[in-house]
Amino acid sequence: MTAPTLVIGEPVPVDDRAEREQMDRVWGSKPGFWGWLTTTNHKEIGKRYITTAFIFFLLGGIEAAMMRTQLSRPENSFLGPDKYNQIFTMHGTTMMFLFAVPIMEAIGLYFVPLMVGTRNVAFPRLNAFGYWLFLIGGSFLYVQFFLNTGPDVGWFSYVPLSGPQFSPGKRADTWAQTITFTEIVAIVGAIELIVTIFKQRAVGMSLNRIPIFVWAMLVTAFMIMFAMPAVATASMYLALDRLVGTHFFNPAEGGDVLLWQHMFWFFGHPEVYIIFLPATGLVSTMLPAFTRRPVFGYPAMVLALISVAFMAFGLWVHHMFATGIPQLAASFFTATSTMIAIPSGVQIFCWLATIWSGRPRFATPMLFILGFIFLFVIGGVTGVMIASVPFDLQVHDTFFIVAHFHYVLVGGAVFPLFGAIYYWFPKVTGRMLSEKLGKWNFWLFLIGMNMTFFPMHWLGFYGMPRRVYTYLASTGWGPLNLLASVGALVIAISVIVFLVNVVTSLRHGEIAGDNPWDADTLEWATTSPPPPYNFLHLPVVQGRSALWDEGDEHQVAVGTSTERREVLLTTTLDAQPDSRESHPHDSIWPLAMALAIGVLFITAIFTPLALPIGAVLGFIAFAGWAWPTRQDVESESDEKVSLEGA
Amino acid sequence: MTKRERVTVDVTELPTVVFGHRALLWWGTWGFAVAEGMTLVLSIATYFYLRRNFQAYPPQGYPRPDWIAPTVGMAIFLATCIPAYLVKKSAVRLDRSATTRWLVILSVCSLVLCAVRTVDFYALRVLWMTSAYGSIQWVLLGFHGSLLLIEVAEVIGTTALFVNGPVLPRHYPDACDIGNYWYFLVLSWLPIWFIVYIGPRIW
After folding, report:
1. Residue A550: phi, psi to the nearest 5?
2. Is A260 part of the contact surface with chain B (CB cutoff 8 Å)?
3. B8 interaction partners in chain A (CB closer than 8 Å)
4. Is the CB of residue B35 less than 8 Å away from at least one CB of chain A?
């Protein structure tokens, strides 16, 4: 059976089996373990990324539960001080570097190509490389932890505590190298997303028509490009101070400990928005399906995203109010920290207006959206409070801060994430999650979250410092700590309910169909789960709500090759068809490259020989990656070259 | 799929190999250049931040870095833009022999620049472990040097492909992007050279 010829203006024949079989042959990965190792399909990589990051979330959650057990009563001896230090460091490092940022990027890497109507992410081998490097970096941290060499200096790793004088041994080196791994992974992912969004959008999807989640990922990717180099540079300085005797943070030789804080928070504050902005994008993209109307104020939403991104780079010093910075600087950073509430508020009011003027349907994703708005407003308001220097100095390094940022990060990112999982699980697996278990999941999470973190505001007011492994009964902190610990147990039960839901639904969940929520974005225009090539015929977009604006007929573009992997490139602003570019086939070399870099980073902690060894291995992997194979030569011999724009 | 599909766009006639901002790799190359450039900017910021901790700069007891050899090196850096430009120009003409020739010359240039960088380190006249002053001088050169090494590997690898491999049409835009990245490498060295070797003689 041969694929039919498709002509402009004609409807596509209903029987498309031959075409699908052909596209499966071209875009499918090899079967078996080899195919699993070599695949470069963004959905396969995205699923692994999401699953791996979620496993890290569970590990970070277990660490949190251990801390709450330890703090549940005064003078408890469940964890000693050394183990407690390691556990809270592992919790923060895991949640920030191995869960929150990677899972948001992973969702982007899975869904952005589908939402913009293309067949794969730009640079698919780089995508596979990023995942393998993430897996190696995360595994390295946990292997070190289980060998009692896990970091114990906090997720922020302040010097001089983490420097060679106060942290001998390899624990702080483990932290620094884990960071190097994750920063490279984040930057690689950001570049893939930017290029995919700029160059691979469906015909007609001009920049003012892309889904808000795609806007959020675009803005976030740019933030990653400018923020992550700061922590990568700082962790490099730290490693050099520790391993080869430089003096960046040694005041006795002209170094400066505050340099670390500036570098770290220049990354660290944008990091919060690198986690939060994709979450807002998820909310804005899910909301239309549950309110039956496009999101209110699309231009305002997009401008809010962009302005938050800019402002996020101008307020890092509010983490350093207690370091004795000049008064003028303190005033400036108070102003900028307060100002960022404006674009965040714009987003919240747009969501409220969407719900107000729509016909809300309270399915589980919608519940998580409402929970998010409630919790994030609390976290945002306490954020405005601590933007004020006198208030900040009172609660600095107390549990008030712990309460604040958990409302922002759990409320502002984890709730939308759970909502997103309920929303897109049908697309990824073809089956619905149980609504009944979903509601249990939501309510237990909401109750547990508030039980755990709301009392921490009071604990902070009562003076309980962060990062202490125990306290005396005479402080009076026992009852509120016990309440917080019971809340943590409720969250744990909620997460177990979620896992049960996922496992049972994978086997017995209701069959989803292509578009179970009757949503408006392009990923719902293909089958659930999508085929390896995403869309048999590439969609043509006619409005901001792609599937709602097109009426009864789905317009498509034809003419990309069915004989080889090929993607359609469009112009950056207006998404007009521009070229067809051949697309790399699967390869083992991204894994080889990740192993080479892994060897380099890990052995660098122990010996300078790591550099030549890593360089040689890296060059071999690079050569294997880039050298054309016979398959390349066969499929790319007959190209049509255009020199326009050269 | 419940909706009927109708063909409204046919892209059969579009080109399959394009150059410059129309190609994916162009964007990827500049993406990495921006992220790496940010690292260099932050290192320069560190230089000035640490400088505040010293009453004199270079600190008392440290000689000023030599400037003559690094300035000659800077001139060599700038001169290598010529073969980089000619690589681009021949690649746009899809001229394999000319592209190969200029890539070979660029490879030799890249090795010469490695030697130049060694001289640059010697010209600092300070070791990284003596003080924060020495540390940041070495790191500025080292960060840029690591970008140079990666580019050396890329240029030599691409040259080997053009000399002896199956060159496909898409490799010509790739060669152009090597030229683009080369410009970034040279231009990003300019401020570092000025700050490290010339600045201490001016301010």
Report:
1. -90, -10
2. no
3. 8-9, 540, 555-557
4. yes
Closest by alpha carbon to A589, among A622, A556, A616, A617?
A622
Chain B hits for A554, Cβ within 8 Å: 1, 3-6
- C-alpha–C-alpha distance, residues A314 and A295, integer Å: 29
CA distance A102 to chain B (A): 18
Give yes or no for a contact between A587 and A40, defined as CB atoms under 8 angstroms apart.
yes
**Residue A173 near chain B (CB below 8 Å):** no
Q: Which residue has the higher pLDDT, A423 or A13?
A: A423
- Is any Cβ of chain A less than 8 angstroms from the Cβ of B163? no
Read off φ and ψ for residue B17, nearest 5 degrees. Answer: -130, 125
Phi, psi of B8 (to 5 degrees): -125, -10
Q: Do residues B197 and B71 make contact, with C-beta atoms less than 8 angstroms apart? A: yes
Nearest to B28 among A195, A230, A578 (CB): A195
pLDDT tens readout for residues A137-177: 999 999 999 999 999 999 999 999 999 999 999 999 999 99
Contacts of A56 (CB under 8 A, 6+ apart): A94, A95, A98, A99, A102, A138
**pLDDT by 10-residue block (mean), chain B, 203 residues:** 84 95 96 96 97 91 94 96 97 96 97 96 96 96 96 96 94 96 97 95 84
Query: The complex's ipTM?
Result: 0.95
Strands A538-539 and A553-558: antiparallel
Q: Count of A–B CB contacts within 8 Å?
A: 266
Q: How confident is residue A15, by pLDDT bands cut at 50, 70 and 90?
A: confident
Chain A residues in contact with B138 by the CB 8 A cut-off are 246
